[in-house]
Amino acid sequence: MSPFERDPFARFRNATRARIGLGRAGDALPTSAILDFQLAHARARDAVHGHVDFVALAKQLAPVPTVRIRSRAKDRTIYLARPDLGRQTNAADLPSSGDRYDIAFIIADGLSASAVEHHAVPLFKACMKRLGGFSVAPVILGEQARVAFGDEAAAAFGAEVAIVLIGERPGLSVPDSLGAYITFRPQSGRRDSERNCISNIHADGLSYEVAADKIVWIVREALRLQLTGVDLKENAEGAIEALPHQEA
Fold first, then answer.
1. What tens digit of pLDDT does each residue of 8-53 get?
2. Quick check: 198 and 206 in contact, CB under 8 A?
3. Binding site residue list for adenosylcob(III)alamin
4. What global pTM score does this model have?
5. What separation in angstroms does the CA of 56 have from each of 45, 66, 121, 132, 141?
6. Residue 110, by phi and psi: left (phi above 0), alpha (psi -120 to 50) or beta?
């Protein structure tokens, strides 16, 4: 008897990380499946409650200059309980220079410290290889930060486009997935519909090279068409389609 005949779900498990056909021991799951689930749950909790080592991150980015900016959430407990505070910058940390840039990168801890520590720097470097000719602000390191935090932070540098690299909410199959959010003319009050998102950047998902291609592609079109969000669509042929803008 072949392995597939003994276990008809085996072929599906080879194609997905989803938990399917786990079997049973009496009226419960097998011990191995229960232990695997508990380990995945623990890794997800660790990712959410973890703290990014921003000092080490700045050293990895050197000689690229960095600026560390905190949100209004004073600690991780407040950050998780008050998403609104994670969207706002601590005004005392914002720079006062009058410089202007095409692009500002914001590396924010988000909901997965492990995602940021594993993937943010390689993805940033892959993007920079493709961004010749654009002026890029010092990298903003956002502590206790959510996506909208990048709007105020990038606006302080006069950036035309904000690229937020942030730890995504961990699941039970991937605890370290990174997301990239691109916003044209970032400013306080931007809606999520005014952003483009590239998600699932991790070892078993989107590679750094492919993600960087997509991010830079959207950035170039955002600057050309002066928009991002639902009005900016990526099609299968590798072109960007701009739809007529409609006010909400």
1. 777 777 777 777 777 778 888 888 888 988 998 998 898 899 999 9
2. yes
3. 147, 168, 197
4. 0.86
5. 22, 12, 11, 26, 11
6. left
